[in-house]
């Protein structure tokens, strides 16, 4: 009986180790760490920001925003204030593909605007986040890959991507 119990423990441990190994790999693709660092280092400077749309169902934050030449781990998860410009995916949540709120998940944008100095509350994620007044935008990359690390895993139903 002890031999069977030990065998089951060993098999269980092997299964758990395999799952943990596969859970660590990312699902967003993208460049190598060195390529990402080089791309950020070669960015033009200016009075604008870079933003990465991060859509999680039922949340109202927009995504991550950072200054040019700043690494993504310095980016802030923000809520857009849209008094001056509506956010790029301001569509109905049940619209057709490509015209639905969140259709632009993981798009990278060049953003014009500024931090208001206030925080806004997103009740669905239970977070107070910096408020960013959007005044303009343009898409710079529709498929930039991972955001913080190559092992980032996107899940549209829960927050899984954050700076550590």
Helices and strands, with pairings:
Layout: H1 2-23, H2 33-41, E1 49-53, E2 63-66, E3 76-81, E4 108-122, E5 127-141
Parallel strand pairs: 3-5
Antiparallel strand pairs: 1-2, 1-4, 2-3, 4-5
Broad structural category: alpha+beta
Q: Beta-strand percentage?
A: 25-35%
The averaged pLDDT comes out at 86
Assembly state here? single chain
Rg measurement, Å = 20 Å
Q: Which descriptors apply to this entry?
A:
alpha+beta, Lipoprotein, 164 residues, 19% helix
Describe the fold and architecture:
The chain has helices at 2-23, 33-41, and strands at residues 49-53, 63-66, 76-81, 108-122, 127-141. With 164 residues, the chain is of the alpha+beta class. It has one domain. It has a 5-stranded mixed barrel. Residues 5-23 have low confidence and may be disordered.
Kindly summarize this structure in a few lines.
With 164 residues, the chain is α+β, with helices and mostly antiparallel strands. The chain has 2 helices and 5 strands; from the N terminus they run H-H-E-E-E-E-E. It is globular.
């Amino acid at each position: 009986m002890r031999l069977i119990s030990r065998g089951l423990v060993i098999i269980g441990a092997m299964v758990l180790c395999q799952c943990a190994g596969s859970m660590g790999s990312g699902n967003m693709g993208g460049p190598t760490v060195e390529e990402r660092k080089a791309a950020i280092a070669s960015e033009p400077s200016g009075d604008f920001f870079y933003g990465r749309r991060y859509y999680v169902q039922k949340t109202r934050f927009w995504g991550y925003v950072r200054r040019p030449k700043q690494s993504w781990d310095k980016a802030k998860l923000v809520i857009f204030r849209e008094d001056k410009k509506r956010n790029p995916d301001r569509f109905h949540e049940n619209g057709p593909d490509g015209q639905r709120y969140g259709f632009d998940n993981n798009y990278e944008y060049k953003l014009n605007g500024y931090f208001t100095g206030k925080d806004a509350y997103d009740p669905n994620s239970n977070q107070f986040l910096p408020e960013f007044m959007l005044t303009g935008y343009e898409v710079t990359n529709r498929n930039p890959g991972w955001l913080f690390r190559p092992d980032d895993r996107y899940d549209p139903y829960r927050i899984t991507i954050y700076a550590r």
